[in-house]
Fold:
Amino acid sequence: MCFMFCMLTQYALYVNMVCTLCLTILQGKDMARIPDEQIERVKRETDLVALVRSRGVELAKHGAKDFAGRCPFHEEQQASFIVSPGKGLFHCMGCGAAGNAIQFVAKFDGVSFRHAYELLAAGTPAFSAPAGPARKGTTIPRLAAPFSPENNDAELLLRVVDYYHERLLATEAARAYLKGRGLYHEEAIARFRLGFADRTLGLRLPEKNRLQGAAQRTRLTRLGIMRASGHEHFTGSVLLPIFTANGEVGEIYGRKITHGLRKGTPLHLYLPGPHRGIWNLAALDDPEIILCEAPFDALTFWVHGFRNVTFIYGTEGFTEELFEALVARRVRSIRLAYDADEAGNRAAVRDAGRLMAHGIECFRVKFPWGMDANEYARKSEQSAKALQYLLSSAEWLGAKGKESLPQPVDSPSPAASLITVISPAPAPISFSLAANQLAAREPQLERAGDYHLLRLGNREYRVGGLEKNNSLEVLKVAVRLRLGEDFHLDSFDMAKDTERRRFIERAAEETRLEKDLIKRDIGRLLLLLEEEQATRIQAAMAPAAGKRTPEMTLEEREAALELLKSPDLVKRIGELFDACGLAGEETNRLAAYLACTSRKLEHPLAVLVQSTSAAGKSTLMEAVLAMFPEEERVKYSAMTGQSLYYLGATDLQHKILAIVEEAGAEKASYALKLLQSEGELIIASTGKDPKTGRLVTQEYRVEGPVMIFLTTTAIEIDEELRNRCLILTVDESKEQTARIQAMQRQARTLVGLRLKRERKGLFQLMRNAQRLIEPLDVMNPWADELTFTAERTRTRRDNEKYLTLIDTIALLHQHQRPREVNRDEGERSEYIRVTLSDIELANRLAPELLGRSLDELPPQTRRLLTLIKELVRTRMREQQLEQRDTLFSRRDLRQVAGWSEFQVRVHLGQLEAFEYVFRRWGKQGRGCAYELAVSAEDGDFIAHIGLLDVSKLRRKEQFTTAMTATSCPLEAAS
Structure:
């Protein structure tokens, strides 16, 4: 019996050897061969007894070293299935099945030898198969697929690239090929996700006769990863994926590594369809780049330290995407490192002509005839220096001459050619493109909303929370490293070494990148964040800069001066208002314009435009503000109570502060009043001392003067604000409404469109004119002669407004007046004089602008009173009634005035409160009527503010001039 068992054991060994040989031949015939040492490692590391038992076979001790059980491959009652763990073999004495651990899995699970090998190489999943009878074949994969059906096409390609990348790292043959080509570089492999297609992807997919398998294989076929035959497109190839700008896989290049392929088998493969993507897109940020003909040539430069390199897809593969990117990123010069052959020369001349036509200088890198960059580097003893020499000696292609291209050599001696290229030059060479210049520029932080981004190849670092750090000693941020679908996010202090190390370790686990690579990335990120943090802190501590005043051209300056020197300047300003689309409102628009000009004075005017809703107060404000420089006006829709106190010290100095609606600044009204009357704001506030941490009193100061421009729909205005401002009332007459509607209709015509274009130039002219007005002192030689009513206390402020209005008119005409010099106690100052024409214009405006201060009724209420008088007079005349019998209702007033019920009710209430009208109640069931309490024959209210007639000043001036002329001859005679 023992003899028989020994014979059977020898037979099993023979069968195992034959089977292994046959399977090895089969696997080498149609896929990348598994190295013998890897097969032996899997057989050696696999517990055959545990493996057999995991398939439901009960084994009992048989002899000293073996185990026996019933064969899973045929029906039997006796335990004839022998397992020898010491030899790693099994054999059935009943059916003759025999082999090693890989062959057992292949036979029991019904899979191929390669599939069984992968199952065992993957580890424990092979031992967790469900117990049951042996299968003759299976279409359900036992290996996990690298993607899920829920992935879209872009995600699926990324997962496939990641899977092939893992296979490269696990396949010695692929790594050996890269080493033979001089391209095995861990950073390059990780950064560019190099991979290897060993035909194991198909093992992880169900066959086509399964619904899920058909769907997955159809998608992979459509994307070009698999062929219609079911085989992988890149089988046996080292892969280099090319990514698009948004991180998707645009193209994949494959290079066969197996020798002895069938005749006609292509060595170079790409995905079907047009090429997409630019390899090493970051290289295009450098003004000087290297452009290769093939992927591995470009990779050769990269691994030798020349990081500003990319490639075209062969001599006919210069894509429009690459060309547009080179032009858009303003690349200045390109080293064309194409192969040294006829095709490479033709492509270099063609591509250089196109590039140089767009201002990109082109140079031809001259390899020895018949060589490419990779072959040249492999045959060089010092590859980096040899490549650097060729780059620095590249010849300019501007002349398009043959001498700039590599030429074939008669019977070249490879050794001699190589020595000529590599031998050191007799004198040091000043390379125009040294290695450090050719290296890609350091990537910069990009701002994306609240985050900062750093892209290093296909790795993206997103940093959040940088603004929360207020010192250079702490850098606590949230960092997310993303690599395709894999990412790691953590919050830590980058200034602490232990926390950085923890992040690097965890990120390496999540993304499967090398720790050293992540460590270098974090170092670069740390330096950039420190620089950004220092810049931000310095900017925060620096004083805020105002808006920059734009420079005027000579033509613009001359046009503005011509306007300011016009004898009829005020008339010209009115015409410009008409041309800019502001109809009517002659007094209001001129008064607002002069008030805004007064910002240059020590005590500017303030303006409050009052009207009903939709009457045009905002239009008046916008039209006036548009004529003043953007850097000299500040506009808000609303203000909080303390907002003015915390502006910069000089943010408002000599500027226009415009607030769209006075109600929006109600809480800041106190600060506005102080700023207008005092010319500055000072507030004491409690704050924390940054050095000691103690609470201290801090003083905030906002300096004026400032011109304040407000609008309101309120009927009753705060008295304190009212007596500080010029009150302008918008014209609400039917005639003004008709003018506005006519202009609105004209704006839709061709004439209106032409005027719209012309207005931009008119506004610019007015702004330039205001920029040429300088803040000068104004001397009024007639000030002692001028008069103003003194009936009320508030006229003290009104008189100051009147005098300021005169000063503003003189300031506007400063380019028409001689500048005089005042020397007082050694100080020199320039000033201009007020003329009688300035006073005359001020006297024309003042009664309407300042006379309202003497009227107890608001302007609109006064207008309603005038309409009531006209209505009463008309009815008295038509109906022959006495005034006390001539009554009217609110409806009558609505019809006469064309006002809303709200407007009539509010203003009529004002008249009733001031006893201009009385309310008369009708009989029961009838509405109330009103009686006019003052005489209907009284004329309109006329404000008398006691201004001196300018004609008297003119006569006095003429008399003084005449007396001076008469006295001159007498003085000469004496």
